[in-house]
Design a protein that fits this description.
Blueprint (H helix, E strand, L loop, with lengths): L12 H30 L18 H14 L7 H17 L2 H6 L1 H15 L8 H25 L2 H8 L2 H4 L1 H10 L3 H16 L3 H6 L1 H10 L4 E5 L9 H5 L11 E2 L9 H5 L6 E5 L2 E3 L2 H20 L9 H11 L1
Antiparallel strand pairs: 1-2, 1-3, 3-4
Helix pairs in contact: 1-5, 2-3, 2-6, 2-7, 3-12, 3-15, 5-10, 6-12
Bound molecules: iron/sulfur cluster (3 copies).
Length: about 325
C-alpha cells in the first residue's frame, strides 16, 4: 500500500507538528495569563475576579505523583488539584499508545526545545554527543525520576501524603511556581541562561537529559504498539534522518525506532528521500504517518472530556479558600 508523505493540502510532517505544538503553546500562554489574573485577585491586588483555570495544574507533576499514590492506596481522587492528576494520567495513557507523542506534539516545552534545536542547527552548533556520553547524560533524568518515586512511594507514609496534600503550600503550589518565573532570582536567571545555551549546543538538552516527566513517559512508551520502521532494502544510508531527529536517534542504522526517546514527530520521514523507507507501523501493519500525532491529540481531547465529565478536572474548593491561603502565603 502506498502511503503519501503529505496530508491533503500538502501539510508536511514538520508543519503538522509545529501547528499542533503552536496551538498547545498558545493555549498554555492563555492559561498562564488567566491564572496570573486570578492570582492578582486571590492575593488581594484587585477586586476583579478571574476564575482560576484548572488546566494550570498540568504544571504540577510532583503534586500529581503524590495524588496518584493516594489514589492507588485509598481510591480517592485528589480534590485539591484534580486536573493535575487527570493530566498526569492522560499523558501516561497517550505514551502507552502513541510513544512519546505527548512530548512531540502537546508539551509546550517540546516546541521551545525545537526552537533551540533550530537555532543550534542554523549556527552549526547543535550536536549529539557520542553514544556513551549520551547514555550517561540520560541517566541524569532517570536518577531525578527515581529520586521522586523513591521519596513519594517508599519514604512517605500515607499520613505524610495526606498532610502534604492538604497543606496550604500544596494549595498555592501553582501560584508559587508562577512567582518563581515572574520574579526570578539571579540564580534562576543564570540557570535559565545555562539551559538556553546548552539547548543550542546539545540537541534537545533539557528534554533528553534533565526532564523526569519525559523520562517517565519514555518508559511507558516502551509498551506502545506504534513505532517507526526503516526498510533496509529501500535505505540509501544518506544519514539525513539521523541529522533531523530531535531525539538524537541513529535512525539510519536501526530497523525499528522503539527507543524511549522517539517522539513520533516524523521529522526523520520528512527528510528521507526514499518515499517508503520510513513508515509508521501499528504492530506489523503500516499506517499513515499523521495517525501518530493526530491519534495522540484525539486521545488527549477525549480523555480530557471524560475527566471533565466525571468531575476529575474542576476543583471544587471554594474560591474564597484560595484567597485566604494566597493572602497568607504569597
Ligand atoms: S521531555 Fe519533558 S519538557 Fe520535554 S517535551 Fe517531554 S514532558 Fe515536555
Ligand atoms: S533518510 Fe531515509 S534513506 Fe537516508 S539513511 Fe535515513 S532512512 Fe535511509
Ligand atoms: S526517530 Fe523519527 S519520529 Fe522518532 S524522534 Fe526521531 S525523527 Fe522523530
Amino acid at each position: 500500500m502506498k502511503l503519501s508523505h503529505h496530508l491533503p493540502g500538502s501539510i508536511t510532517p514538520v508543519r503538522f507538528q509545529r501547528t499542533i505544538q503552536s496551538i498547545f503553546l498558545l493555549y498554555s500562554i492563555w492559561i498562564g495569563w488567566r491564572f496570573y489574573q486570578f492570582t492578582l485577585w486571590a492575593s488581594g491586588q484587585t477586586d476583579i475576579y478571574t476564575p482560576r483555570p484548572d488546566s494550570v495544574e498540568a504544571f504540577l507533576p510532583i503534586s500529581a505523583l503524590i495524588s496518584l499514590r493516594d489514589l492507588i492506596q485509598t481510591h480517592h481522587w485528589d480534590v485539591i488539584h484534580p486536573a493535575g492528576l487527570s493530566f498526569f494520567l492522560i499523558a501516561i495513557t497517550i505514551s502507552f499508545f502513541f510513544r512519546k507523542a505527548f512530548c512531540g506534539y502537546i508539551c509546550p516545552v517540546g516546541l521551545i526545545s525545537g526552537w533551540l534545536n533550530w537555532i543550534g542547527s542554523k549556527l552549526h552548533l547543535s550536536k549529539v554527543p557520542p553514544r556513551w556520553i549520551d547514555y550517561l547524560l540520560q541517566l541524569v533524568k532517570y536518577s531525578i525520576l527515581a529520586f521522586f518515586i523513591w521519596i513519594v512511594v517508599f519514604r512517605m507514609s500515607l499520613a505524610n501524603i495526606h498532610s502534604l496534600m492538604r497543606s496550604p503550600f500544596n494549595l498555592v503550589a501553582d501560584g508559587k511556581m508562577l512567582q518563581f518565573f515572574l520574579h526570578p532570582s539571579t540564580t534562576t536567571l543564570l540557570v535559565l541562561v545555562g539551559l538556553f545555551v546548552l539547548g543550542i549546543g546539545l540537541r534537545s538538552f533539557w528534554c533528553r537529559y534533565l526532564c523526569p516527566y519525559g523520562a517517565l513517559l519514555g518508559l511507558f512508551s516502551k509498551f506502545s504498539p506504534v513505532y517507526i520502521n526503516r526498510e533496509e532494502k529501500q535505505c540509501i544510508h544518506c544519514g539525513k534522518c539521523r541529522l533531523a531527529c530531535p531525539a538524537g536517534i541513529d535512525v539510519d542504522v536501526r530497523e525499528k525506532m522503539i527507543s524511549t526517546e522517539c517522539l513520533g514527530c516524523m521529522r526523520c520521514r520528512a527528510v528521507c528521500p526514499q518515499e517508503e523507507c520510513l513508515t509508521v507501523r501499528l504492530g506489523d501493519s503500516p499506517i499513515r504517518w499523521w495517525y501518530l500525532g493526530a491519534g495522540a491529540v484525539i486521545m488527549f481531547m477525549l480523555l480530557w472530556l471524560i475527566a471533565f465529565a466525571l468531575g476529575g478536572w474542576e476543583s471544587t474548593l471554594p474560591k474564597d479558600m484560595f484567597r485566604i491561603f494566597y493572602q497568607k502565603i504569597m
